[in-house]
Amino acid sequence: MLETTSLYRPVSQAELDLIAASGWRAFPPRLSEQPIFYPVLNEEYANQISRDWNVPYYGVGYVVRFAVETAYLGQFATQNVGDPHHNELWVPAEQLAEFNAHIIGPIEVTATFRRQA
Question: How would you write the pLDDT of the chain (117 residues) with one tens digit per residue?
Fold first, then answer.
């Protein structure tokens, strides 16, 4: 059986719509001002980004979980960007199509955060 690693990603409504349009199988290409795709290694951190950054900026934020072939992920060093649990992988934007090809199964929404009325 193929070994996989679960990763998480905080996303906006626009990005979620593009993921849904892919059949829940791929992340959309990065914009020109986004040189890296950064999935995070734990759900707590993804929730924090979605709640504390995406909700104030977009009004809503989602967290998605997806599985990637563990052996493929070995080429990406874990980057810590703050607190001990703030760990993410930095995938160069030009490698995102290849990264998507190593996703196993569907991308699924695990959390939704909305601005309080």
Answer: 789 999 999 999 999 999 999 999 999 999 888 999 999 999 999 999 999 999 999 999 999 999 999 999 999 999 999 898 999 999 999 999 999 999 999 999 999 999 986
- Whether the model clears a pTM of 0.90, i.e. scores above it, the answer is yes
Contact in structure between 90 and 36 (CB atoms under 8 Å): yes
DSSP the chain: ---EEEEEEEE-HHHHHHHHHTTSS-PPPPPTT--EE--BS-HHHHHHHIIIIIHHHHSEEEEEEEEEEHHHHTTS-EEE-SSTT-EEE-EEGGGHHHHHHTEEEEEEEEEEEE---
User: Could you tell me the sign of the dihedral formed by the alpha carbons of 81, 5, 39, 95, in that order?
Assistant: positive
